[in-house]
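ARCHIVE RECORD
Type: protein–small molecule complex
Small molecule: adenosine-5'-diphosphate
Source of inputs: curated submission
Record status: active
Notes field left blank by submitter.
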Amino acid sequence: MSAMLEVASVSKNFGGVIANRDVSIRIEQGEIVGLIGPNGSGKTTLFNSIIGYHPVDAGSITFEGREITRLRVPRIARLGLIRTFQQTRIFGKMTCMQNMAVSVPNRQEGLAASFSRFPKALIDRAEELLEFVGLHEKRHLRAGDLSFGQQKLLEFAMALMNEPRMLLLDEPTAGINPTLINGLIDRLQRANQQLGITLLIIEHNMRVIMNLAERIYCLAHGQLLAEGEPSAIQNDQRVIDAYLGAS
Ligand code: ADP
Ligand code: MG
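STRUCTURE (tokenized, with ligand):
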């Protein structure tokens, strides 16, 4: 059986800097998988290669049995493979609801278009998902007026608007206070269990990733260093030397 996502021997370099070298990972449908490693180890680059943000130099990527190696972001997004960013990408002057509405591909035309023109089904879905992340009461507030943690929750809800089958999250808890972190862990687990979304999560907070992930990959210097269950990864001497020992 092929995995839901299969990254096979992917390499990517930027003008001589080898960001990923011969990286292979497999993710089964329904899993929550962690991706860890020091800064500059190539985690974000791997995400960008998977979702079609830039072409790879070597290797292949397959999603649900379909080769996506040379497809670009919009095509891959339509297959249900979606990412979020390390930095939030919301429109600060628009309300939460407006951000939700414009986060769906094909509806981006005319950001200024009046919100009332969006179909009822889309608005209902946006309200449902804002409820899901705990922002329903704030739905008519400007996104820029939310706290940073709330903005990350909004961004998560925006990603869910695209009905992902697999979501790649780049440091979802970075900069969020501990209370909101627990809320986010809970939402991610519910997205996995109730909405059936497979998750691949880059995360520096070891408490978060140990709580969430069933399996963890560790990158160092662009290469895969280790793969295993959280407890095994935490005690892996190579991972401790390259990453955990330093943090
Ligand atoms: P991580 O997310 O693990 O911190 P990155 O994937 O962002 O690591 O970066 C891996 C390496 O690739 C770093 O040396 C980084 O400077 C380099 N890199 C990433 N993106 C680019 C780019 N667009 N242009 C040039 N170098 C890049
Ligand atoms: Mg990164």
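CURATOR ANNOTATION: The chain is about 35% helix and 25% strand.
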